[in-house]
Amino acid sequence: MSDSPVLYQVDGAVATITLNRPDVLNALNTALMLALREAVEKAAADAAIRAVVVTGAGRGFSAGADLASSSGGTGNAGTTLRERYHPVILAMRAMPKPIISAVNGVAAGAGMSIAMAGDIILAGRSASFLQAFSKIGLVPDAGSTWFLPRYVGDVRARAMAILADRISAQDAQAFGLVWQVHEDAELLPKAQEMAQRLAAMPTRAYAMIKQALNDSHQRDLATQLELEADLQVEAGKTEDFREGVAAFLQKRPPQFKGR
Ligand code: T3D
C-alpha cells in the first residue's frame, strides 16, 4: 500500500478518502492534515464526484492528534488547530455533497471530530468513540464540543468529554451518533454502496440540505423558514427536480444528474 498519509480513490462518482498511518492508528500529524485538506478540497471541487467516504486504514479510524509530534505542550496548539484542523472540519461541513464517515476502529480525540464532521456515520462492530482529550489534560477540539451535544445531547456530551470513556459502536448507535453498525468486513463495502446510491440521487438538493441543516440550531424559526424558502426556489430550478417529478408522473425510475 502507498505510504502517502492520505489515500484518494475514485470509483465512478464516489471518492474514498483513507487516513493512512495505520501503525499509529492514523494519528494526525501535519503531513496527514495537509493531505486530508487537499483531498477534501479536491473532492469538493470535482463536479464528477457526487459522494465521499472517509475511513481509516488498518484497525483504527484515527487516534487523534499525533502525540509524538503534538504542539499541545509548546503553546502552539491554537495555531495548529486554526491552520491544520479548522480548514478540514469547515471544508467537510461546507462540502456540497454528502460525506459518509466509515468508522472502522477507534475514533479518538480530533479523530472523532473528523468522523463527526461527516454527514452520516457508519461504524464497524469493533469501532469505538473516545473523547480522549481530558485524559491528557486537554479540552475537546476540532469541533467536538459543537458536534457532540447536537448529536448525543448535553448530558451524554458532558459525560463523554469529562469521563473520556471508550464508547462502543453499539452504544454510539444507541446515543444517536451512529446511523448504522455493520460487521467489520462489511463496513467499507456498505459505506461505498451507500455512497454510490447517494451519488445517483439529486446531489444539488443534498448540498442545499446540508446548507439548511449546518447551522439550523443557531437560527430562529422565522429565519430558518426564510432559508428553506430560498433554498426551495433554487432546488425547484434544477434539472433534477424536473426529472424527479416527470419520473414520478410517468411511473419510471428517475435519472438524476446532479444538475
Ligand atoms: O496541538 C495539537 O495537536 C492539539 C490537538 C489535539 C487534538 C487531539 O486529538 S488530543 C487527543 C490525542 N489522542 C489521544 O490522546 C489518544 C491516544 N491513544 C490512545 O489512547 C490509544 O492508543 C487508543 C485508545 C486510541 C487505542 O488504544 P489501543 O490499545 O487499541 O492501541 P495502542 O496500542 O494504544 O496504539 C497502537 C499504536 O498507535 C501504539 O504504537 P506502538 O506502541 O505500536 O508503536 C501507540 O503508541 C500509537 N498511537 C496511538 N495513539 C496515538 C499513537 N501515536 C501517536 N499519537 C497518538 N494519538
Task: Give me a quick take on this structure.
With 259 residues, the chain is an alpha/beta fold.
Detail the poorly predicted runs.
none
What oligomeric assembly is this protein in? single chain
CATH superfamily of the largest domain: 2-enoyl-CoA Hydratase, Chain A, domain 1
- Give me the count of strands: 10
Q: Could you explain the architecture of this structure?
A:
This protein is α/β, with parallel strands linked by helices. It folds into two domains: 6-199, 2-enoyl-CoA Hydratase, Chain A, domain 1 (Alpha-Beta Complex); 203-249, Lyase 2-enoyl-coa Hydratase, Chain  A, domain 2. The chain is 47% helix and 16% strand. It has ten helices and ten strands. The strands form two sheets. It has a six-stranded mixed beta sheet with strand order 1-2-3-5-7-10, with helices on both faces. Strands 4-6-8-9 form a four-stranded mixed beta sheet. Strand 1 and strand 2 form a beta hairpin. It is globular, with a radius of gyration of 19 Å. The model has no long low-confidence stretch (mean pLDDT 96). Bound molecules: ligand T3D. The site of ligand T3D has 25 residues, from helix 2 and strand 6.
Observed structural traits:
259 residues, alpha/beta, Lyase 2-enoyl-coa Hydratase, Chain  A, domain 2, 2 domains, 6-stranded mixed sheet, 4-stranded mixed sheet, 10 helices
What's the topology here?
Layout: E1 6-11, E2 14-19, H1 30-45, E3 51-56, E4 60-62, H2 77-94, E5 99-103, E6 106-108, H3 110-117, E7 120-124, E8 128-130, H4 144-152, H5 154-163, E9 167-168, H6 169-175, E10 180-182, H7 184-199, H8 203-214, H9 221-236, H10 239-249
Parallel strand pairs: 2-3, 3-5, 4-6, 5-7, 6-8, 7-10
Antiparallel strand pairs: 1-2, 8-9
Helix pairs in contact: 1-2, 2-3, 4-5, 8-9
The protein binds ligand T3D.
